[in-house]
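Long-time lurker, first post. I've been practising inverse folding by hand and with some scripts of my own, and I keep getting stuck on stretches where the structure tokens seem ambiguous. Below is the full token string for one chain I'm working on. Before anyone asks, I'm not after the true native sequence, just a reasonable design that respects the backbone. If someone could post their per-position residues I'd love to compare against what I wrote down in my notebook.
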């Protein structure tokens, strides 16, 4: 009898990872990094299943909380195939290499700081994985197309379908042991710029549904331009910098899309815009490799020479030296840098230089998980620790929620609408407890479905 085990994103948001077993065949769906501070120790724990025993990984998309532990899996013995869309495979290359670089950089920074402070560590400070580990992961990727049926293991087939979350993202429907299981991955939204809407799916016996925003409704996306314009105009008036912590994948490209529209229409002044993230620069180029995944409006913009990825005043920053010079700019600049939750990357350096400046603004355009520096700042902390030092928060703090690439409560219900018959069971995952409980209660009461919120490590039989 097939079994399903929840190895991540169970009563928390990150670390997406699920184990399917049937008759000796083992497959993971996602292998993500835990990003909340209170769960980060799980990244260092041995995998609950021997990596060498796995036949494959089915990867829904290239965000770190879904793919970020793949190099560790490979280092510990995995030699199977990683099935995903071509765009996901291409983006994951940059995501994993960048993550590995940050792991090594952070370990070195911590070692140097402890040496300065004459601190003795009980064990050597090592990175979670290295760039060499990430490089060994890349040959295992195997690209599939939407709608294509692939045999991931004996008796286990999978079909990927458009999830509308980020470029190349997918929901995955698995047939195993006579039952069907649908993994939502991260569900996107309808009517967002650049990429296509989520695709309908065939009914399944079991459903795993993300619930990141399962207890809330997003602002209308029409408000995005107004709020972004206000942030740019007010920051320029004050004479500071506008810092935008942003995921390199999708969010950065969307911010550029709206900045381009606002400048072209004259609603904001022409200020320098810097994308200070080598990975975001690389990912933006990946977008250009996959125009078949664009929606109609984006294809029209590209055909008319109005690309949001090359407007006047936009600079793609690659080198560390270029990044450092941004701290000495005069006047106002928009600096878009990773990571999106301020857990690492170049945004930390810009925060260190601007967080205590009243004239500067930090604009959040994405979800900030519990326990991250971004959530701490957004929650109103008056002092935060950045790069080993406590810093006063004097900068203006803003948030635009309409940018979210995750479906909200009503959009998740819309995504479920094609399920013409009740599933045997629906598992609510990938959400903080309050969001998961709210969505589970709603679906149980409104649809009458059997809904549960699995625990970390829980194993269930798929009858």
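-- Answer (accepted) --
I ran through it position by position. Result:
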């Amino acid at each position: 009898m097939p079994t399903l085990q929840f190895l991540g994103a169970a009563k928390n948001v990150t670390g997406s990872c699920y184990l399917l077993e049937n008759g000796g065949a083992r497959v993971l769906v996602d292998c993500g990094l835990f990003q909340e501070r209170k769960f980060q120790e799980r990244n260092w724990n041995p995998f609950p299943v021997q990596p060498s025993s796995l036949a494959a990984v089915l990867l829904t998309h290239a965000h770190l909380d879904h793919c970020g532990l793949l190099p560790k899996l490979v280092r510990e013995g995995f030699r199977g195939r990683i099935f995903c869309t071509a765009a996901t495979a291409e983006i994951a290359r940059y995501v994993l290499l960048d993550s590995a670089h940050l792991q090594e950089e952070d370990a070195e920074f911590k070692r140097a700081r402890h040496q300065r402070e004459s601190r003795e560590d009980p064990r050597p400070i090592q990175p979670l994985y290295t760039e060499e580990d990430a490089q060994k992961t890349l040959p295992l990727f195997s690209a599939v197309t939407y709608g294509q049926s692939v045999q991931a293991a004996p008796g286990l087939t999978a079909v990927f379908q458009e999830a509308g979350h980020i470029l190349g993202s997918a929901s995955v429907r698995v047939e195993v042991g006579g039952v069907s299981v649908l993994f939502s991955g991260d569900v996107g939204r309808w009517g967002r710029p650049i990429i296509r809407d989520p695709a309908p799916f065939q009914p399944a016996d079991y459903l795993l549904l993300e619930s990141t925003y399962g207890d809330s409704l997003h602002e209308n996306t029409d408000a995005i331009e107004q709020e972004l314009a206000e942030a740019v105009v007010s920051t320029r008036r004050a004479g500071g910098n506008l810092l935008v912590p942003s995921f390199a994948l999708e969010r950065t490209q969307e911010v550029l899309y709206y900045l381009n529209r606002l400048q072209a229409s004259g609603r904001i002044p022409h200020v320098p815009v810097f994308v200070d993230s080598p990975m975001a620069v690389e990912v933006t180029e990946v977008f250009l490799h996959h125009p078949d995944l664009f929606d109609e409006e984006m294809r029209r913009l590209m055909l008319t020479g109005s690309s949001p990825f090359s407007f006047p005043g936009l600079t793609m920053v690659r080198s560390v030296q270029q990044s450092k010079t941004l701290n000495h700019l005069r006047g106002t600049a928009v600096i878009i840098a990773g990571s999106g939750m301020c857990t690492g990357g170049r945004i930390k350096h810009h925060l260190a230089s601007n967080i205590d400046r009243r004239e500067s603004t930090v604009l959040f355009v994405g979800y900030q998980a519990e326990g991250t520096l971004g959530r701490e700042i957004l929650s109103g902390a008056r002092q935060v620790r950045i790069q080993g030092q406590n810093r006063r928060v004097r900068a203006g703090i803003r948030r635009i929620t309409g940018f979210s690439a995750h479906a909200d409560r009503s959009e998740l219900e819309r995504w479920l609408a094609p399920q013409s018959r009740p599933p045997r069971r629906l598992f609510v995952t990938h959400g903080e407890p309050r969001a998961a409980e709210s969505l589970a209660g709603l679906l149980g009461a409104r649809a009458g479905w059997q809904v549960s919120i699995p625990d970390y490590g829980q194993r269930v039989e798929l009858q």
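A couple of notes from the structure itself: Residues 223-403 form a domain with the Rossmann fold fold (CATH 3.40.50.10890). The CA atoms of residues 107 and 200 lie 44 Å apart. Happy to go over any region you disagree with.
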